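Sanity check

After download, print the first record. It should look like this:
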Amino acid sequence: MLHFTFSTVLMALLTSNILAGLIAVLFLRGKTMARLGYKVLAFFVLLTVVRLLIPYEFPFSTNIYLPYVLSQIVSYFQEYQIHFFNIPLSFWNLFEILWVVGILIHLVLYIHDYRHTKNYILKYGQDKTKEPKYQEILDKLCGQRGKRNCFRVIELPNLAFPILFGRREPAIILPDHLSLSTDQLYYVLSHEALHYFHHDFLIKGAVRILSIIYWWNPACILVYHQTNTLLEMNIDDRITQKSPDITARYAECLLYIKKNAILYSSHTPRFIARNGCFFVQSKETDLKRRITMLVQDSGNWRKRWTGILLTLSMAGVCLFSYSFILEAEYYSPQMEESFMIPTPDNTYFIQIDSSNYEVYMNDIYIGTESSLEYYPEGIKIYNKEGDLIDET
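Expected structure tokens:
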């Protein structure tokens, strides 16, 4: 049976922040990041996302009790401290309410942001889809994958860098001031088209929704940014295919776009960057990471062993966090009364078969358990006939 409590959320918060923090350290260490590769880093981000999505206690989890002082703090946080229209509320209840309200507010802002971006592009952009220089390249790219050309090409003023926008009707948005050679235009259109073919827009949207659900968790900010960078690295790798010549020309194109973006970065509305997949990012460090990943040596034995060791370590942290739950050892009299904490005085079990027990608290049936190892010592166990047969 899964349980969602203050303690399970606390474990998800601690673990996700540890994982996200470790990933951030790896991003800062260029050599280590290059040895791992973007696929291993993407797996680390996936572990963090999974830990956030499943903040529950499993039957195999073991309770580890906090020190007395911390237990008092946690206990106080869960005690009924406030009465709202005769409804008793704890600080944990208030946090749950605030959590839900925050999700709704951020979700409304996200929808408004997306619509605002769409209306801005339609209002100020110029449709250039039919121009031969765009249509020929996109027809070729779609033909190579056996897909019809469904892309629109729009030129937009005051845009720092090319982006892909739209889930169902993808549009490649280009800065109207940007002058590109044939090769550069091919790389730009290829990059944005591959984002669409690999459903990166949906992936980015899913992580954005996760950050909306956990709007109060700083780890989500890191995960969202790391996901954006990894999506770009994935496309870079697929375009260059480890070819030295293509890599060199593609890297030059990245630098060229970046130099032009510097002049217009202050004019580009932030809501556009938040709602699209872009060719280059605004932060200089992100471009350095992508270039570092492009020129990495994929056959290095150190890379393989580094990836294996760190993957086992990160997966171990995630799995280990489910094996135990940090619980308060101290419960105030109010909590014992409110939450019906099981004790030898108010609880007993009835064994219904070799591995299942009915749980009664204050003579009220609570549920059926297959394991009693998490209950306090001294609770009596009876058989179906009412005879005392054992105790915990």
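If your output differs, re-run the checksum step. Summary of this record's structure: The CA atoms of residues 111 and 387 lie 62 Å apart.
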